[in-house]
Structure formats: C-alpha cells, structure tokens
Amino acid sequence: MIGRREFVVGAAAVGLMIEQRISHAAASQPATRINFEIPAGACDCHTHIHGDPAKFPWFAKRTYTPEMALPEEMSALHKALNIQRVVIVTPSVYGPDNSATIYGMAARGKDARGVAVIDDKTTDAELDRLASLGFKGIRLNLSTAGINDPKVATESFVRAADRVKTRNWHIQLNTTLPVIAAMKDTLAASPVTLVFDHYGNANEELGVAQPGFSDLVSLVKSGKAYVKISVTAGPRQNYAYFTPLAQMLIDRILWGTNWPHPNSVGGSASTVSPLWQVDDGLVFNLLPTWAPDAAVRKKILVDNPARLYEF
Predict the structure, then answer these.
(1) Residue 158, CA distances (Å) to 53, 162, 255 in order
(2) At residue 15, does pLDDT exceed 60?
(3) Torsion over CA: 115, 236, 73, 43 (sign)
(4) 135 — phi, psi (to 5°)?
(5) Is 2 a domain residue?
(6) How far is CA 180 from CA 102, 147, 187, 222, in A?
C-alpha cells in the first residue's frame, strides 16, 4: 500500500514532469544561436500545433499519430529564432477540424495567421468564421493522403479554388513535382494565388534539373505562386543541396521551419510517431547562404508574408 509520503513525492514528481513538458519542449528547440540580423516582423510561415488529444481529438482517417506540440513550445522556438510572426497550418492528423490551429493562433494574437483544411461538408458560414479568426487560405495535403494521380489532384484543386476564389484566399499545395508538372496548365490558370509546400517536395540531391522543377520555377516567375522553403523529414547531413533550389525561387520564397517536424513516414493511427529532432537554428542560419542580400532576406521574411497573409 502506498503511504502518504510516497503519494506526495510521486504526485510532486508527476507535477514536475508536466511542468518540464511545457517549459522544456519534447518538440525540437534550436541548439544553434542565430548568427545574422533578423528584421522586425519576420515570419515563420509553416508550423503546426498538436494539441492535447483529450481536447483536440485526432482525425479517425489519419495516416500517422504525432507527439504533442504546444503553443508554449512554439513561442519558445520563435523567441530563440527572433521571429515575431507565425503562420499555423492545420496538419492532416486533424482532417478538416481546425480547432487546434485556432488554439495556437489565439496564443499568438495579432501576430498569427492560419491556413485551414476543409472538405465538402465545410459550410460558407464556417469559412466566414475562419476568415474572422485570421485564416488566409486552405491547404490541399495531397502527398500525405497518397494522392499522386494528376486527374484526382486536379479535381480536388478545382473544387477548392471554387470555394475560396471570392475570398482573396490562397491555396497551399503539398504535392510532388510530377503532379505539379502534370497540372501546370490548370495551375497557371488558377483564379487564386498558389503556395507550394517544401520546395515542391523536390529531392534536393537531384538539383534544379530534376523533372518538374522547371515547371515549379515557371509558376513562381509568372507571379502566380510562392514556394515555402521549409525542410521536411529529419536532420540532414548536408543542407548545401538546397542552395541552388532556393536561389532559383528566390523572389517568391516564404521561409518556414516546418516545426514541430512531424514524422509521417511509415506511421499509423495506432502508434505514436516521435517528432523529428531538428536544429532550427542551424537551418535558419543557412538563409544568408541562400539569400546573401539582406534586402532580399527582408523580402522573404517580412514583405512576402505580410502581403500574402495580410499582417
């Protein structure tokens, strides 16, 4: 039988664990100090919140289950990176439920914007509500859903564009270069601004000549699209491969961490996939290599996000 003293000590230990869980992130935090000047109003354009599942239940049809990643942890990340603003994107693990994203946005107030996930059941009244809360676009997460058929992808895109074209919202696409290449004519005629996730999911080691990358560049140079230079998956041994990709896209880049670095590879709904432990300070310090001109970095970190997300 547990005595009173053992109970008190045990309860204190549990309380300490909870306190540490909030003040010392399980999700990654920067280990490297930032070594260049960050302009005021800089924005991390690609993050997610994974709330307490008791309050924010996971989507039943999710393909993986992540660890929690809370607003307090995100704020600690951005304090270390000298980042003021944030765009929170609803991850696939919530389906069309944007509640956890709203929770994260509320914690950051006027410095936060959101990108929602919707489905055919999402009403216009709900879109109005999301707009009032600071959402500025919707995401089509085709890659995580395993949608690689250009016909299916095009149909999804056309339906989405029809829903938001009168709202001055954008559509953010998480898809592959082959799908982008196959859809290029539809995308070029898009009635809304486009944002491509994660370098268009280019394979950085294949460089700028890989199939489909020139189509992505053409969409960017036409003024139709932005590209998020947010790095997926875990830590890299060599980030230099990203340099030529970033420099080809430089005028219409949005920078993002992809925090808390969810690991969806080989995941399942029944087991928790540990978050990747990425040193976002190390990755952020690569930006001056990708964009040596401080004025260009201000455009990437401040001006482009301010225009697209209406800060």
Answers:
(1) 33, 6, 26
(2) no
(3) negative
(4) -80, 140
(5) no
(6) 30, 12, 8, 15
Q: Three-state DSSP class for 180? A: helix
| E strands, 142-241, in order | 170-174, 194-196, 225-229
Given this model, what pLDDT does residue 148 score? Answer: 83
Please, which pLDDT band fits residue 13 given cuts at 50, 70 and 90? very low
Q: Within 13 Å and on the Cβ side, how many CA atoms surround 218?
A: 14
Q: How many CB atoms lie within 10 A of CB 233?
A: 14
Question: What's the CATH number where 143 sits?
Answer: 3.20.20.140
Burial of 111 (C-beta count, 10 Å sphere; 0-12/13-18/19+):
middle
User: Does the model's pTM come out above 0.85?
Assistant: yes
> Based on the number of CB atoms within 10 Å of its own CB, is 46 exposed (0-12), middle (13-18) or buried (19 or more)?
buried
Q: What is the pLDDT of residues 39-54, one digit of tens each?
A: 999 999 999 999 999 9
**Sign of the CA dihedral with 216 first, then 218, 224, and 228 last:** positive
User: Do the domain assignments include residue 100?
Assistant: yes
How confident is residue 268, by pLDDT bands cut at 50, 70 and 90?
A: confident
Note down the domain range covering 305. Answer: 41-309
Rounded-to-10 torsion of CA 163, 141, 284, 20: 110
Among 128, 140, 133, CA closest to 104: 133
Tally of structural domains, the chain: 1
- Using alpha carbons, select from 94, 151, 96, 97 the residue that is nearest to residue 119: 96
**143 class by beta-carbon count within 10 Å (0-12 exposed, 13-18 middle, 19+ buried):** buried
Q: How many of the other CB atoms lie within 10 Å of CB of 57?
A: 15
The CA distance from 137 to 112, in Å, is 13
Beta bridge partners, 69, equal 50
The predicted structure's pLDDT at residue 24: 45
